[in-house]
Design a protein that fits this description.
Helix 11 runs parallel beside helix 13. An 8-stranded mixed sheet has the order 9-8-10-1-11-14-2-15, sandwiched between helices. The chain has 2 domains: 239 residues, Alkaline Phosphatase, subunit A, CATH 3.40.720; 149 residues, no CATH class. Helix content is 33%, strand content 21%. It is α/β, with parallel strands linked by helices. The longest helix is centred in the middle third of the chain and has 21 residues. The chain is globular, with a radius of gyration of 22 Å. It is built from 15 helices and 15 strands. Bound molecules: zinc ion (2 copies). The site of one zinc ion (ZN) has 7 residues, from helix 3. The site of one zinc ion (ZN) has 6 residues, from helix 12.
Length: 413
């Protein structure tokens, strides 16, 4: 038996237009409706009713883990997803290139995203990765990811995740000094290392040729690295140890690759998967079909709908859902061997267009395959899923999918 899990980020919605329809209800999606007709649907609370999910915690929960127990912070998954080898004891951070200016002895924030820097990030990475600190025995690893984003890892003895951030989040404000959040030597040592590397990143970046060129062409320089979300590495049992299967992930965004890698998935790289609205959905479907020939489970993450909803753009969200249907499911459905494959499709949370952020509303989920007891629902959206045969539950989409594939361990005797 093979399984394919597809999670469309921010898929769930609230009424957006005058007719009170959600983007999913407004979208034309013949392939998803046809799949629904031969499967079963329900509503899933990604973490639990009334819990407003982050993408990372929601994914852990949908993959069958308890984020309340395991989650240490997003930085770990960003670091793992970007290819850093995260070991026990390492401290991971989310990082972003920003623009600051010197004013009266302090560094003041001009732009948190360095003008959404679009090229040259590898030049910045080269300067920052392996930076030497006077805080003894602390090794610095840095990787740039998309636009202004990056991931930072500190390795050394006696480091702590209990350290605050340097990002003031407010234009014109002075860069924060990272403070120890715990009253111990490790937290103080880590805070000292973070403050030193923040200052040093400014010294190293400010006169870089890339930044001189940016300033000369009227762009903001990426002259400092700001960090937040300190986290140490959680212990997550792998899907192979739990189910005895091999799984692979296809995802454009480093965060989602990181979550899946931390859960024991391998990565199928799809260069045209961007993690944005311009992603190549046909290429992802082709890669998933190919992956199903050698892996027991393929997990595909599709980001775009979430981006559109954060931007309050209901039309973009609706048309991206239509593209998921036409380009991803249109490529996939006719070529899956439905005698031996189960499929699950859901979102990791609702991203409401009006609110512009994640909400706790439950999300429709669809299961199809030979062992699924079909229900009477024939369209895939929030309202129809509320009438589905699977009713409403919390998290656990992967365990349910693998149970259909007869790959779940038995609890008890
Ligand atoms: Zn999400
Ligand atoms: Zn989001």
């Amino acid at each position: 038996m093979k399984s394919i899990l597809i999670i469309a980020d921010g898929l769930g919605g609230r009424p957006t237009d005058q007719r009170g329809k959600t983007c999913l209800e407004a979208a034309r999606k013949p392939n998803l409706d046809a799949l629904t007709e031969r499967g079963a649907v329900g509503l899933v609370d990604p973490i639990g009713p009334g819990i407003r999910p982050g993408s990372d915690t929601a994914h852990l929960s949908l993959l069958g883990y308890n984020p309340h127990e395991l989650y240490t912070g997003r930085g770990v998954f960003e670091c793992i997803g970007i290819g850093l080898d995260v070991r026990p004891g390492d401290i991971c951070f989310r990082a972003n290139f920003a623009t600051v200016e010197e004013s009266k002895g302090s560094l003041r924030l001009v732009d948190r995203r360095a003008g959404r820097i679009e090229s040259g990030q590898k030049d910045l990475e080269k300067v920052l990765d392996g930076m030497r600190l006077s805080t003894r025995g602390v090794e610095v690893q840095f990787r740039a990811s998309t636009e202004h984003r990056g991931a930072l890892l500190l390795r050394g003895k006696d480091l702590s995740p209990y350290v605050g951030e340097t990002d003031p989040h407010e234009i014109g404000a002075a860069i924060h000094t990272a403070e120890p959040i715990a009253d111990d030597a490790a937290a103080k040592r880590t805070a000292a290392a973070v403050n030193e590397l923040t200052r040093k990143s400014y010294e190293l970046l400010k006169d870089l040729p890339l930044n001189q060129a940016r300033v000369a062409s009227g762009k903001l320089p990426a002259n400092i690295l700001l960090v937040r979300g300190a986290a140490d590495c959680p212990h997550i049992p792998s899907i192979t140890s739990i189910y005895g299967i091999r799984g692979a992930v296809i995802a454009g965004g480093a965060l989602y690759r990181g979550v899946a890698l931390a859960c024991g998935f391998e990565v199928i790289d799809v260069p045209e998967a961007t993690g944005g609205l311009d992603t190549n959905l046909r290429a992802k479907a082709e890669a998933a079909l190919e992956g199903l020939t050698s892996y027991d489970l393929v997990f595909v993450h599709i980001k775009g709908a979430d981006n559109a909803a954060h931007d309050h753009d209901g039309e973009a969200k609706t048309s991206f859902i239509e593209r998921i249907d036409a380009e991803f499911f249109g490529t996939l459905v006719g070529r899956v061997d439905w005698d031996s494959t189960h499929l699950a499709f859901t979102g990791d949370h609702t991203t409401a267009v009006d609110y512009g952020d994640h909400t706790a509303d439950p999300v429709p989920a669809l299961f199809a395959g030979p062992n699924v007891r079909r229900d009477d629902v024939t369209t895939f959206d929030e309202r129809a899923a509320a009438r589905g045969g699977l009713l409403r539950w919390s998290g656990q989409v992967l365990p349910i999918l693998l149970s259909y594939a007869n790959q779940s361990p038995k609890f008890g005797s």
